[in-house]
Design brief:
The protein has five helices and no strands. By secondary structure, it is mostly helical.
């Protein structure tokens, strides 16, 4: 009777342990995907910053062109005598967003994955040693090792599985915290890019208006 119950408990703990191992694998994979997505988003953000810098240069070139076109007409030349030539602003730094958080998080996730593999190998060695120690302990000793829970009737394999399962749950908790941090960083980057896109659209509209104005000036000069 006791043996059949122990077999059932052993099967249950084995299934639970396997589930936690799969969860670690899946959450680690999700974290790596999140990191790669964050890196791609960051690269995209740098490209948007570069585009903003280009639109700034276009806008300044149009201002220069407008000022020169004014000089080509008599009244415009008189007006420009009292106005200084548009000065170029300092060009924007292209692609200079900080990547510290991304790189640190990426390294941390990869290190955790490597540590997990090392832990699994070490546990196999430790299990053999624990089995010998466990067999030599008295019933009271076994109870003290596991706190208030009386596991003295359980097999060594079941106890080891329960211990590993607890460690796995703690690791899953840490990985979920990493996933939360990754998602927050992704959200912040997407918000920044939305603002960048609005800025680009505004600058394009401004440039189009200046192009239209310069075309009118050219028409007046030619005709």
């Amino acid at each position: 009777m006791l043996e059949s119950q122990l077999d059932e408990i052993n099967k249950t703990t084995q299934d639970s342990l396997e589930s936690t191992r799969k969860m670690i694998s899946k959450t680690t994979e999700m974290a790596e995907i999140g990191i790669n997505t964050l890196v791609d988003l960051h690269s995209q953000g740098n490209q948007l910053q570069s585009i903003i810098g280009d639109t700034e240069n276009i806008d300044e070139n149009l201002d220069q062109s407008g000022w020169i076109l004014k000089r080509m007409s008599f009244f415009g030349m008189i007006k420009n005598m009292f106005r200084s030539q548009p000065k170029r602003k300092r060009s924007l730094n292209k692609g200079t967003r900080k990547t510290t958080n991304i790189k640190e998080l990426e390294i941390e996730i990869r290190n955790k994955k490597q540590k997990q593999k090392l832990k699994e190998k070490e546990k196999e060695k430790e299990k053999k040693k624990e089995n010998e120690k466990f067999k030599s302990r008295s019933k009271n000793d076994k109870q003290s090792v596991y706190g208030n829970v009386d596991r003295s009737i359980l097999t060594t394999e079941i106890c080891n599985n329960l211990d590993e399962q607890e460690e796995n749950i703690n690791q899953i908790s840490d990985l979920l915290k990493d996933l939360r941090e990754i998602s927050i960083l992704q959200g912040e980057e997407i918000d920044r890019q939305a603002q960048d896109l609005d800025t680009i659209n505004e600058k394009i509209d401004t440039s189009l208006n200046k192009i239209d104005l310069n075309n009118r000036k050219i028409d007046k000069i030619l005709y």
